TrEMBL record, chain A:
<feature type="domain" description="Clathrin/coatomer adaptor adaptin-like N-terminal">
    <location>
        <begin position="34"/>
        <end position="553"/>
    </location>
</feature>
<keyword id="KW-0653">Protein transport</keyword>
<protein>
    <recommendedName>
        <fullName>AP complex subunit beta</fullName>
    </recommendedName>
</protein>
<keyword id="KW-0732">Signal</keyword>
<dbReference type="InterPro" id="IPR002553">
    <property type="entry name" value="Clathrin/coatomer_adapt-like_N"/>
</dbReference>
<keyword id="KW-0472">Membrane</keyword>
<dbReference type="GO" id="GO:0099638">
    <property type="term" value="P:endosome to plasma membrane protein transport"/>
</dbReference>
<dbReference type="InterPro" id="IPR016024">
    <property type="entry name" value="ARM-type_fold"/>
</dbReference>
<comment type="similarity">
    <text>Belongs to the adaptor complexes large subunit family.</text>
</comment>
Automatic annotation (TrEMBL), chain B:
<dbReference type="GO" id="GO:0005886">
    <property type="term" value="C:plasma membrane"/>
</dbReference>
<dbReference type="GO" id="GO:0005905">
    <property type="term" value="C:clathrin-coated pit"/>
</dbReference>
<keyword id="KW-0254">Endocytosis</keyword>
<keyword id="KW-0653">Protein transport</keyword>
<dbReference type="Pfam" id="PF01217">
    <property type="entry name" value="Clat_adaptor_s"/>
</dbReference>
<keyword id="KW-0168">Coated pit</keyword>
<dbReference type="GO" id="GO:0030131">
    <property type="term" value="C:clathrin adaptor complex"/>
</dbReference>
<dbReference type="GO" id="GO:0006897">
    <property type="term" value="P:endocytosis"/>
</dbReference>
<dbReference type="GO" id="GO:0051285">
    <property type="term" value="C:cell cortex of cell tip"/>
</dbReference>
Length: 699, 446
């Protein structure tokens, strides 16, 4: 088999790619002979400072390419006692690199660190504190405690801000020691420091420590603190601003005055050049916005709209994150961009992932006012090259037509054009969309009639074939050749996918009930005999038996009224469930907002409270996003297969294959008169089906 | 936050590996190489496996990857990567594999100054340049940073003093013989025109680049012809002298959709009084960027007519009219896409040079010294060869590239630029302002 050979080759190739550098590395190591080491060694103990610097640099270069230079440790260490900052930094770099593998050796350097932390030069003091924290040996804590405590109270802000970060390092090593010896309370005191950079670092460190052990409440922002944060916000650099804004978005209050105060002071940050700052500011506002009056809400939305659009002129990577976040905000506030959809129109050279996001937003924004330009824009996308993009565009066209009924004719005209051009993947996608559209607008079938036969030849994709079967069954009285076309499809029923088989079954039943001229009866018998005798699938068999029972009952009219009943309208709703949406809005700027999944669902770091599980259940209802995420899940699977564990206890994400919409629709047709309203999602659809099945069998 | 920053070349060899946290295994570089960089299924620049997320950007022949655990602030990671490239490009002519390889130590030091324990500390090029001690190899000769470096590296002790001050982007005690400040207003015009000639989008993303060579701690203020600003002043005037409003001044300004400032600009002052005041960093920065989409002056009108005469023949008739003032001149180049299966294409033009480029499937048309108010036309007959697969041709849009000096498409003007030094009342400075309009993404569908 060709594919399997190819897969094996691919696998070998991947392995090879992994191996190659290792092979080179080992050969390189051999080549890196003693002579070189001794040469470096000579340089390291040279009496000239510049020779020593050069030697350390070369040692680091050797270290970077993967050579083992740990034997030089004592010689490098000798250079630590220098007053030259350049040399000191280089030696520290070397130390940090070997801190992981040779922790015991690093302890040797401890005395120098302690001495350095008393140095007059603040850079050296900060450097010592910073480097010391990077050495991951529990023993270091004893040496670190005293200098760190001093550094936290240092006169110089540069040292204090470095010390603030160092507290997290210490906390990671030994949380118990860190909290019981007052380091955390010292850190908490730094939040009110006069220097903005120190404040920012303290806030960041506290937030991180808080997330380690949320129940201890190390970082509970109170309103009185926000005043100081606000001052620091406008003074510190961009990364500090992001930190402070993130902290502010953790702040929860029910007092409208407090929230208003915060939001008003945050608004100027929209004008910052760093997109991280802008989005963080938006996040602060979004966390408080539900408290405000309509007027103030509108004012805030009006303020945030232009900066959000500005993010679209950034690099594609940032654009992508911005678009995903805009998507969330739009679900909360659909009319935030009054000026319409034009800014979201795709550029020809946009990467695919941007185009798909823009397309989603264009679809969301479609309404009566902008429908004409939306339609003509979507129409141009249909002729683009990328397969995936064209397919999505066709889907969007369908969604738009459901949303804005007035354009259904224009929309179908576009589809008919596609039928004319007759490119199979496009035709297939259109057929799938058509099924939904025809449910909503059954009268439009007559526009389609001339094409059906030609279209049927092009369909290979089971989804499209199932849709076609549904169309033929549903409109068997308007389609002249419906019997002929269906029997064509039935003739290959044995090779079809389950969803097509199910659709065919329903279609032939409908055909018999509607026409009742005896002609298609042979067809029905054929389908029944296949489904009940040949097929091993439970669903198909049970359903066939059910239909059979129904058809043999006395009152055929009753059966017809059950099977061919009036269909409820299709509800167009691609929005996330409200609970999930609110959860995601408070996760803006983070990875969760990009995936539109709550963090627990994809990082799985334990801690599943009752809330989390409930939210997960809600999230599973969200079928739309499931599809978008398959790529990630695939990635997760690959990881499991190759057994590459990198530390995280990643719980496998749930990846149930969602049943195709057309399938459940068909089943539901059956029970519409028995069981009422249209399900808005598939999970409940499955539930409905089951209960309704029981009802019917009891007939 | 950031667990590590990695540099890879296109082959997937690890060049730089700087981990800030200890939560990554040593196989991490292999994971990145196999699952992130050479994963054909990955379409976005973000990947998550288990609890680890990878974010990467590409620059020349380099991939720069950040790795983070849990649910990181993703926009911060991306913004950081962008800044990292920006800072590197301040030092090096080209940020590519060979420069990285020659500057291991420098880049490690740089990363250590930018990030501490995975927390981004600073990315301001000027501030960083003062904190660094290692001299990069192959640096940019003209770089203002390297100039400053040689003077500041002697007093390393002082560099951190101003690092954490309230003006972290400017060092005290800068001295120039002649105080000069340059403002360079560059507007990029984004244009999207539908096949029927409708302007679907026309907007400007402009930026104000500043090069400040000023002594001391000057305070600058500058004003632009922004409509809101005008209204504000206008109202004030009205209240003061109670004279009837003169509406012509109000209509003079342009409407800025949105503007963004460098961190040196005092944002609350802008929010309340529409005042752009700042203490400039030394050297070059992008002071401000803005968007505008009202009353955009589109410098060219283009009417493409492309007719498919038969299966083998296409006719292009493209006419352009320049609509900027007559005395300005520009160089314009057009890229006109043609199908893949072109057998022969012979464009004719009445100015400039044109030719068919088979490798890119385009007809190019370059017009140097294109004066204002001038009509030009390109006529081309394109013959197509017969191919077996009659693939659908997607008709990519025509794209433009141009650069017009002393012309601002949005109509923006600098109204004033004040430079003052609080400690020196006799402070003098020379100011230069320059405008230009360039092509952003200009696409004309046909």
């Amino acid at each position: 088999m060709i594919p399997s050979t190819w897969q094996v080759l691919l696998f070998l190739f991947k392995r090879w790619i992994v191996m190659v550098p290792k092979i080179f590395q080992s050969s390189r190591q051999k080549a890196f002979k003693k002579s070189e080491t001794s040469e470096l060694q000579k340089g390291l103990v040279s009496q000239y400072a510049n020779e020593r610097i050069d030697a350390v640099k070369r040692t680091i270069a050797a270290m970077t390419v993967g050579k083992d230079v740990s034997s030089l440790f004592p010689d490098v260490l000798k250079n630590l006692a220098t007053r030259d900052v350049t040399l000191k930094k280089l030696v520290y770099l070397y130390l940090i690199n070997y801190a992981k593998t040779h922790p015991d050796l690093c302890i040797l350097a401890v005395n120098t660190f302690v001495k350095d932390s008393e140095e007059y030069n603040p850079t050296v003091r900060a450097l010592a504190i910073r480097t010391m924290g990077c050495i991951r040996v529990t023993k270091i804590i004893d040496y670190l405690a005293y200098p760190l405590r001093k550094a936290l109270k240092d006169d110089h802000p540069y040292v204090r801000k470095t010390a603030a970060v160092c507290v997290v390092k210490m906390f990671e090593l030994d949380p118990q020691y860190c909290s019981s010896n007052g380091f955390i309370s010292q850190l908490q005191a730094l939040v009110t420091d006069p220097n903005p950079v120190v404040v920012a670092n303290a806030v960041r460190s506290l937030a991180e420590i808080h997330d380690f052990e949320p129940e201890k409440g190390y970082f509970n922002l109170v309103y009185t603190m926000t005043d100081r944060l606000m001052v620091a916000l406008s003074e510190c650099n961009e990364w500090g601003r992001i930190a402070i804004l993130s902290a502010l978005s953790r702040f929860r209050t029910s007092d409208v005055k407090e929230a208003e105060f915060i939001c008003e002071r945050v608004i100027p940050q929209f004008q910052h050049a760093n997109s991280g700052v802008v989005l963080a500011a938006v996040k602060v506002i979004m966390t408080h916005i539900s408290l405000f009056s309509e007027d103030f809400k509108n004012f805030l939305y009006k303020k945030m709209a232009p900066p959000l659009l500005t993010l679209l002129s950034a690099d594609p990577e940032i654009q992508y994150v911005a678009l995903r976040n805009i998507n969330l905000i739009l679900q909360k506030q659909p009319n935030i961009f009054e000026k319409g959809t034009r800014v979201f129109f795709c550029k020809y050279n946009d990467p695919l992932y941007i185009k798909l996001e823009k397309l989603k937003i264009i679809t969301m924004l479609a309404c009566e006012e902008n429908i004409n330009e939306t339609l003509s824009e979507l129409r141009t996308y249909v002729s683009e090259v990328d397969l995936e993009f064209v397919k999505q565009t066709i889907k969007s066209l369908g969604d738009v037509a459901l949303k804005v009924p007035s354009i259904i004719n224009d929309c179908i005209a576009v589809f008919l054009e596609i039928f004319e051009v007759n490119i199979s993947y496009m035709v297939q996608e259109v057929t799938v969309v058509m099924e939904t559209l025809l449910r909503q607008y059954p009268k439009k079938i007559r526009l389609l009639l001339p094409y059906l036969e030609k279209v049927l030849e092009e369909l290979g994709d089971p989804r499209a074939r199932a849709s076609m079967a549904w169309i033929l069954g549903e409109f068997c009285d308007s389609v002249r050749d419906s019997t002929k076309l269906l029997s064509e499809m039935v003739s290959t029923i044995g090779q079809e996918d389950l969803q097509v088989q199910l659709a065919l079954l329903t279609a032939t039943v409908k055909l018999n009930l509607t026409l009742r001229n005896g002609e298609p009866e042979a067809l029905l018998r054929k389908v029944f005999s296949y489904s009940t005798n040949v097929s091993s699938n439970q669903d198909l068999r049970d359903r066939a038996f059910m239909y059979q029972r129904l058809m043999t009952s006395e009152n055929i009219d009753k059966a017809a009224s059950i099977v061919c009943s009036q269909k409820p309208t299709v509800e167009h709703n691609t929005n996330l469930p409200k609970l999930l949406l609110d959860g995601l809005l408070s996760e803006m700027t983070t990875l969760a907002s990009v995936y539109h999944r709550l963090p627990e669902s994809f990082i799985g770091q334990g801690k599943f409270g009752a809330d989390a599980i409930q939210q997960r259940a809600v999230e599973e209802l969200n079928v739309e996003e499931e599809n978008a995420q398959t790529s990630i899940e695939k990635g997760a699977n690959v990881e499991n297969l190759l057994d590459l564990d990198f530390g995280g206890q990643g719980t496998p994400t749930s990846s149930e294959a969602a049943p195709s919409p057309s399938l459940s629709n068909n089943v539901l047709d059956l029970f519409m008169s028995v069981d009422s309203p249209a399900p808005s999602n598939q999970l409940s659809a499955a539930g409905h089906t089951r209960s309704a099945t029981e009802d019917l069998l009891g007939l | 936050m950031i667990s590590g920053v990695f540099f890879f070349n296109l082959k997937g060899d690890n060049l730089i590996c700087r981990t800030f946290r200890h939560d990554l295994k040593s196989s991490i570089t292999d994971v990145i190489r196999v699952h992130v960089l050479s994963n054909p299924e990955l379409r976005t620049p973000i990947a998550t496996f288990g609890s680890t997320s990878y974010t990467y950007v590409r620059n020349e022949d380099l991939y720069i990857v950040t790795v983070a655990k849990g649910n990181p602030n993703i926009i911060l990671l991306l913004e950081f990567l962008e800044r990292l490239v920006e800072v590197l490009s301040r030092y090096f002519e080209k940020v590519n594999e060979s420069t990285i390889k020659e500057n291991f130590a420098f880049i490690y030091e740089l990363l250590d100054e930018m990030i501490d324990f995975g927390i981004v500390q600073m990315t301001e090029p000027h501030a960083i340049s003062r904190a660094l001690t290692i001299n990069p190899v192959k640096k940019k000769e003209s770089s203002i940073l390297s100039m400053k470096r040689s003077t500041s590296s002697q007093n390393v002790t002082s560099h951190s003093i101003d690092h954490s001050k309230s003006v972290p982007w400017r060092r005290a005690g800068i001295r120039y013989r002649r105080n000069t400040i340059y403002l360079d207003i560059v507007e990029r015009l984004n244009l999207l025109i539908s096949s029927t000639g409708n302007v679907l989008r026309s907007d400007i993303s402009g930026s104000v680049h500043m090069r400040a060579l000023l002594s001391g701690m000057p305070e600058c203020q500058f004003g632009i012809s922004d409509k809101l600003d005008f209204k504000l002043k206008h109202n004030e005037n009205r209240q003061k002298s109670s004279r009837s409003g003169n509406d012509s001044t109000a209509s003079e300004g342009i409407t800025l959709e949105d503007c963004q400032f460098h961190q040196c600009v005092k944002l609350p002052e802008f929010e309340n009084e529409r005042k752009i005041s700042f203490i400039p960093p030394d050297g070059e920065v992008e002071l401000m960027s803005y968007r505008s989409h009202e009353n955009v002056h589109i410098p060219f009108r283009i009417h493409p007519i492309v007719e498919q005469l038969s299966k083998q023949k296409l006719i292009y008739r493209i006419s352009i009219r320049s609509s900027y003032p007559h005395k300005l001149s520009t160089s314009l180049s057009l890229r006109i896409p043609v199908p893949d299966n072109v057998a022969k294409a012979s464009p004719r033009v009445n100015r400039g040079k044109s030719g068919y480029k088979p490798s890119e499937n385009i007809i190019s048309w370059n017009i140097p010294n294109y004066l204002g108010d001038m009509d030009l036309i390109l006529y081309a007959e394109v013959e197509l060869s017969n191919t077996t697969n009659q693939q659908h041709w997607s008709r990519p849009p025509i794209s433009l590239d141009f650069n017009i000096q002393m012309f601002a498409s949005s109509g923006l003007k600098v109204k004033y630029l004040h430079v003052q030094e609080p400690s020196n009342s006799k402070y003098k400075s020379i100011k230069w302002v320059r405008y230009s309009t360039r092509a952003g993404t200009c696409e004309i569908r046909f």
